[in-house]
Amino acid sequence: MTALYFTIDTEYSFGMARRMGGGGRAENFASAIIGATAKGPLGIHYQMDRFDAAGIKAVFFVDPMPAMVWGTEAVADVVGPIVARGHDVQLHLHSEWLEIAGAASPLPGRTGNNLRLFNFDEQCTLLDYARAVLVAAGAPAPVAFRAGNYGANDDTLRALAALGIAYDTSHCPGIAASECQISLGPDDRQVQRHLGTIEVPIGCIGAAHGTLRHYQLTALSDGELLAALRHAVRAGQSQVTMVSHSFELLSRDRLRANRVVQRRFDRLCVGLGKIAGLHSATYAANLPAIEAKAPAPLPHSPLRTWRRYAEQAVANALYGAK
User: Fold this and answer.
1) Three-class secondary structure assignment of the chain
2) Roughly what angle, to the nearest 10 degrees, separates helices 259-272 and 44-54?
3) What is the value of pTM for the model shown?
4) Which domains does the chain have, with CATH numbers?
């Protein structure tokens, strides 16, 4: 059986909070977490409805850093429904929130868009703070982490090991220009122990000109994702990781549904249940296993790629480029 870790980076919008001078928590929650639109919500509750209908358990990587601005209740409002519905909550961290944290910052006077911009001791401080807030908000103690923007480095892995957080999933082989500076490359696609932490890479497929493209809802069509997962099962891959976001089904301005991506998500959830040999997994119930080597990714298909190009062109024209 191949384990699928369907992960959702779940986060308030820092950009909105900054534009509103640190205010607007209710509006931010409605937009970035609930995914409110005039025709109904498309955020975490919609995602969990589809997951539950398809028998999928998902992993929600929740960012606790907005607690510096709005208090722990802001994070509890995110964590509570996820835990209540039996999905997994793990740790996410967007360090840019330090910019508007004021006196509540655990690192007064320091800020940066990526965790890798902080030294080892500072990263330990931020990770320890974020973990404490997440637990105070009602989540079980996290065992896995993903850096905001994938912006981790080797000190991140050392800091996680020092804090007893065993798993990181910030390495994304399918993004050549990723913000991640962990000392692993595009060929490091297997789950492996690295610098004291177990690194769980984001899945990827073969793309044009020998490149790779990552498993993300806005990066691949549902046809490509399902083909990639069938390939992983046939190849005997023990686990794969897919990424989405709490707001990913919305238009670029987050005011309405992106019907192309919404349909992609809906079809994907239904299609996952039809792949024999694939099961959904969580860090709470099924920890990733270290692999000797990852199978070769799904080879590039010009036909599947051109179909995605056409689909993306429609989505960008109607809903704004993602």
Assistant:
1) CEEEEEEEEECCCHHHHHHCCCCCHHHHHHHHHHCCCCCCCCCHHHHHHHHHHHCCCCEEEECCCCHHHHCHHHHHHHHHHHHHCCCEEEEEECHHHHHHCHHHCCCCCCCCCCHHHCCHHHHHHHHHHHHHHHHHCCCCCCCEEEEHHHCCEHHHHHHHHHHCCCEECCCCCCCCCCCCECCCCCCCCCCEEECCEEECCCCEEECHHHCEEECECCCCCHHHHHHHHHHHHHCCCCEEEEEEECCCCECCCCCCECHHHHHHHHHHHHHHCCCCCEEECCCCCCCCCCCCCCCCCCCCCHHHHHHHHHHHHHHHHHHCCC
2) 30
3) 0.97
4) 2-319 (3.20.20.370)
pLDDT digits (tens, 9 = 90+) for 268-299: 999 999 999 999 999 999 999 999 999 999 99
- Does residue 322 register a pLDDT over 60? no
Question: Dihedral of CA 11/3/132/122: which sign?
Answer: negative
Our CA dihedral for 122, 181, 178, 87, rounded to 10 degrees, sits at: -60
Torsion angles phi and psi, residue 89, rounded to 5: -115, 125
